[in-house]
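# step 3/5: fold
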Amino acid sequence: MHQKIKEYIESHRERFLNELFELLRIPSVSADPQYKEAVFKAAYKTAEFLKAAGIQYVEVCPTPGYPVVYGEHLFDPSLPTVLVYGHYDVQPPDPLDLWESGPFDPVVKKTDIHPEGAVFARGACDDKGQFFMHVKAVEAMLATDTMPCNVKFMIEGEEEVGSEHLAWFVANNKEKLKCDTILISDTGILSNETPSICTGLRGLSYVEVEVVGPNRDLHSGLYGGAVPNPINILAKMIASLHDENNRITIPGFYDDVVNLSDEERRLMAEAPHSDEAFKKSIGLKNTWGESGFTTPERTSIRPTLDVNGIWGGYTGEGAKTVIPSKAFAKISMRLVPNQNPDKITRLFSEHFIKIAPDCVSVKVKPHHGGEPYVSPLDSPEYQAASLAMQSTFGKKPVPVRSGGSIPIVSLFERELGVKSILLGFGLDSDAIHSPNEHFGLFNYYIGIETIPYFYENYVNIKKA
């Protein structure tokens, strides 16, 4: 079975890459309305590729926002059905001047980590390259008549803006989306030498804050020293959100946090990690974070609060001596199991308004959020994924928890009543959400080879 699939992949290797390039050239930035036409174009191109792969039924389903691309290939109701989830939208490419090549002009370049080459483009890893592995893997199975079970696809266009309308789509299409498990590649592995499977995701609470002082920008000489400066005050308020041990100071923030046992932390520590390599990879002299926890623990099992952007006043060329009327910041909080994003957003809002001096007014605007997620290691999905990676990498994958958030995973379990398996192939060094995002050719092709093993193993385990 798999020799036929491998031969098919090898003989179509160049086409698989060129087709990915077609998708990557479409600037499907969901956060910016000026790219609206491109986002729709990406949806229809995705549907086109699903049809070309041999999927029986494909449709572009409208939502109140960007469409969901749905496909299904059902040939035996007695067999399990796997639902593949991915997203065709991408992050904004800014800052453009830091890209070594055009963000929507994909090229292959060699790197120290990817000596065989990597595709550089926005969306290469997150998530066009990764969901496209599934399209090509299913194509290979259908073309070689080795598809072991039913498959459905649900590829959305709003993941990078919080999947705003996906909940609406899922709630209105439960029968259409009925399945036995959901297969997602929007995560990564520890390294190309050490495969891993993501077994947990942090949740998210994202807010925007506004601090308002005087009714207009003021001359800093005539008024300075006598009126509140919203930027100064905002900076002090933000600084107060962490104590000297880098713990978050919002009352009640840690009340629901599930603390891992010493044994669970010991097992986590068995995963390969080098603080020196971590620091070197991002140009740091030292790490920073909550006292009493290691770097891998800080980025996976502990909650965080980070300022993602801050602005106000004059930021143009040269000098303009003003006390601004307003200051703004965007703040994200990554959450761990049992923390509820709505509750955390409420606690943040109450605290932030409370700590503001009475000379300014404060507004807190909630953006998107999502629940944390933990996947059991004894599930058929995890076992099938583990065996699949052993077949292609030659070693058993390590279970790891990711610091990132995929809010729809908990939504799927709640609405569809099934577990998801996070079978990603990216690397932390692939610069997702940053300039020069890339995805290794090794990772792309080994993903396509591994996915058919997952299907075969999953069917066998479900039959047993």
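# step 4/5: annotate
The chain has 13 helices and 18 strands.
# step 5/5: archive (pending)
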